[in-house]
Specification:
Number of domains: 1
CATH class: Alpha Beta
Organism: Butyricicoccus faecihominis
InterPro entries: Sheath_initiator (IPR020288)
Strand order of the largest sheet: 3-4-5
Order of helices and strands: EEHHEEE
Helix content: 10-25%
Largest sheet: 3 strands, antiparallel
Number of strands: 5
Pfam families: Sheath_initiator
CATH architecture: Roll
Shape: extended
Radius of gyration: 20 Å
Protein name: DUF2634 domain-containing protein
Strand content: 25-35%
Length: about 140
């Protein structure tokens, strides 16, 4: 006979606190960092940028859940199928972060040698309009 009610008399005597998104501000223009810190929406913008600039499984320092998988798609012609694969790769990479709630409203602009992808990331800190440039081969 299996029990139908489980009661172990445990009482939750603690609160779960969410950690702040505070992180060091990085500069990508070649100048040294000033030691400043970012929090909130600005920290999320930086996190999104870093996730999309890191190829998954390529660097031992990062978890296998961090980064984007696009190496297999490089060199393919810019077709709607490729656009869907890039959008899915972006969504998978960003949804691995527990602060990201959704990635939606993708739009694509074909260039001579690249594909510019614009999208909106809904996070716990607010909405972030972001873009990603995927290099490929046009036909």
């Amino acid at each position: 006979m299996l029990p139908t009610e489980y009661n172990d008399d445990l009482v939750q005597d603690f609160e779960i606190e969410t950690q702040p998104t505070r992180t060091y501000a990085l500069r990508f223009d070649g100048y040294p960092c000033s030691g400043g810190k970012l929090d909130g929406l600005e920290a999320m913008k930086q996190a999104i940028f870093l996730i999309l600039q890191t190829e998954r499984f390529q660097y031992a320092i990062y978890s296998w859940n961090y980064g984007i998988e696009l190496n297999a798609l490089l060199g393919q012609t810019m077709t709607p199928y490729l656009q869907a694969k890039v959008a899915k790769a972006i969504e998978d990479a960003l949804m691995a972060d527990d602060r990201v709630l959704s990635v939606e409203q993708f739009s694509f602009t074909k260039g001579k040698r690249n594909l510019l992808v614009k999208f909106i990331v809904t996070t716990t800190e607010g909405d972030v309009e972001s873009e990603f440039e995927f290099g490929g081969e046009t036909a």
